[in-house]
Design a protein that fits this description.
The protein is of the alpha/beta class. The protein has 5 helices and 10 strands; from the N terminus they run αβββαβαβαβββββα. The chain has a single domain, classed as 3-Layer(aba) Sandwich (Rossmann fold).
Length: about 230
């Protein structure tokens, strides 16, 4: 189980970094940084997508080394015919601009699904809000243990998001997510306090949680198509 001391050291490394994530206070997040040496390592396996609608963006946490479950999920989704790619959390603004541009030109780019772990989960919420400012709907956010200095804060979800599934450890560093102004969708906060052996650094790699997320994504995009793609 990850201790507060270990996470404190992890976050201290983040704050020394040269690139600011740019997280605004009303979300309940702190403004963490990314080590300048941690260049974004993109993970985008590219077999021909069998599902010709939708896009899944997956975002890693600190330094591209703590959230390899995002890469595993990307590979699993691509193998099922889903358009999916993994990125460093610091790229959320660039990715939001890309998604908004593609959606404006081709509505089959929707539904947009955002998945993130740790600072990547923070970035997913921010990216969703930025997309909302551009009039782009977000079908689903899946968050794995977003971070703040206090677990008393709550993360507010923007009104353009239809559904949120938030896996978190309430007695550790995870954050509960709540409706922001105008939000009318569904938020499912899944408290993993009683799940033994699951902590902040391994939550995204848990096989059961990964299988659940893959199933939810496929159902969201259209279960029959995804089943056909895997045959």
């Amino acid at each position: 189980m990850v201790t507060r001391l270990a996470l404190g050291r992890l976050l201290a490394v983040a704050m020394v970094g040269g690139l600011a994530l740019g997280i605004s206070g009303h979300h309940g997040f702190e403004s963490y940084g990314v080590p300048a040496a941690a260049a974004a390592q993109e993970k985008a396996p590219a077999p021909a997508a069998a599902i010709e609608h939708g896009q899944v963006y997956l975002m890693r946490g600190l330094a591209n080394i703590w959230s390899r479950g995002m890469d595993q999920l990307t590979e699993q989704l691509v193998a099922k015919g889903v358009r999916a790619s993994a990125h460093n959390h610091s790229r959320w603004q660039e990715l939001a601009a890309e998604a908004a541009d593609k959606y404006s030109k081709d509505k089959s780019f929707a539904p947009i699904i955002l998945i993130g772990h740790s600072l990547g989960a923070n970035a997913a919420v921010l990216m969703a809000e930025r997309l909302g400012e551009a009039g782009v709907p977000v079908r689903l956010i899946v968050a794995f243990d977003s971070l703040a200095r206090s677990n008393d804060v709550k993360v507010r979800i923007s009104s353009n998001v239809e559904e949120v599934i938030n896996f978190y450890k309430a007695k550790a560093w995870g954050l509960e997510m709540v409706a922001g102004k105008g939000f009318k969708g569904k938020i499912d906060n899944v408290n993993l306090n009683e799940r033994r052996g699951v902590g902040h650094l391994n939550m995204d790699k848990n096989p059961e949680l990964q299988a659940q997320v893959v199933s939810i994504v496929l159902e969201t995009l259209g279960g029959q198509q995804s089943k056909a793609a895997s045959n």
